[in-house]
Amino acid sequence: MRPFALVWGGQLVSVVGSALTGFVLAVWVYQVTGSVTQLALVTAANTVPGILLAPLAGVVADRWDRRRLMIIADFAAAVPTAVVAALYWTGQLEVWQLYLTTACTAAAGVFHSSAYFTMVPKLVPKRHLGRINGLFQVNFAMAAAAPVLGGILLSTLDVDGVLLLDLATFVFAATALMVVRLPEGATRATEGKAGPRSMLGDLGYAFRYLARRPGLLWLIGFSALFDLLFAFAEVLIRPLILAFSSPATLGLLMFVGGAGLFAGTLTMTAWGGPRRKVSGSLLFTGIGGVALALHSLAPSTLLIAIVAPVFLFTLPIVNGCVMTVFQTKVDSDALGRVTGLARVLWQAATPLGALIAGPLADLIFEPAMRAGGTLAGSAGSLLGTGPGRGIALLYAVIGLLLVLLAIAGSRLRRLRHLEDDLPDAVSDKEPTEPTPTR
């Protein structure tokens, strides 16, 4: 477990640095433009490269040295961050430039995450995968907690200082990868199992692999819909809170929400998730939907501080269960290609949700929930009218859809019995001794 711990620690530092950058730039964009749509476009730019490059990244992760791929990706992601820092320092930074630099950083990130995900089953035995995938969610919990530090750093280091700090974390993560000794077979697919030699052949292999396992296809579809609804909530949470509070309060509430996320990661790490991972994912999706809908009741800091941690507590368990199913049921030497194909849907959900949520909020729900708006006498009588209440109504709808998704998933036999229908693709033996770093 020591090699995994060293790799994970380095990546955790990098994730926190990137989260700080994401927070301060999101605040900057919203304060400069006052537009949810502009904010959503930056979010979309962070995920569109994943749609286009995920299949290729999966093929590369199954073919190339995964350690080297992660190191190259770390440095490639640092370059756009340095460009943004230079533009801000010289007073030339504009919102449209963030679309381009964010897309470049995301492109490097998809290769990095593909290599990281496929390496894990070779670093730890099967019985620990649920706990390890819970530990993965610590990265997201720390990212959610980063806004508190980001709010402090904005008043001390300013935006360019936070960007320079992010650059340092990229270097730290790459250095950790360079010095760690990894078990035999962790960095490259086993010879003879890498599948067809052509890139197109590898993509076709992934299609055929999933076609023979329809339960995995249903799980991909469930995860994509979950990601779509979560993307709505993620892009709308900042304007929802900023409608009745300050950026400092936003940072504090995101920290409180992050505490719930962190508690969920600790629970998943200690517990490993339920024995039946698919059922656990469906159950906690329903619980999260209820908590998300409760965000809409009132423009209250106290309310958000209570329900946001509950919703975010469920997220590591849902994601951890899904990740464990894939790592357990998909051969590790094909994991990059198969999950690369799946990520097309998973990552398409995020920009699609962001692109839809912004115009819905700006053009339909917010005007409808103003005093005298079309919904002021109906939904407005329950949720209130004014700035942010249209977004609150959207939260109620999203929460209800998550509950319906959980119920529908529990009625699908292919999904519900996936773990019984498919044999495990990995054994529970310990990884071999580490090989020297090269």
Automatic annotation (TrEMBL):
The chain crosses the membrane at residues 12-30, 36-57, 69-90, 96-117, 138-157, 163-180, 216-237, 249-271, 278-297, 303-326, 338-361, 390-408. It is found in: Cell membrane. SUPFAM superfamilies: MFS general substrate transporter. One of its GO terms (cellular component) is plasma membrane. Keywords: Cell membrane, Membrane, Transmembrane, Transmembrane helix. It comes from the Bacteria. This is Putative MFS family arabinose efflux permease. It comes from Amycolatopsis cihanbeyliensis. The lineage of its organism: Bacteria, Bacillati, Actinomycetota, Actinomycetes, Pseudonocardiales.
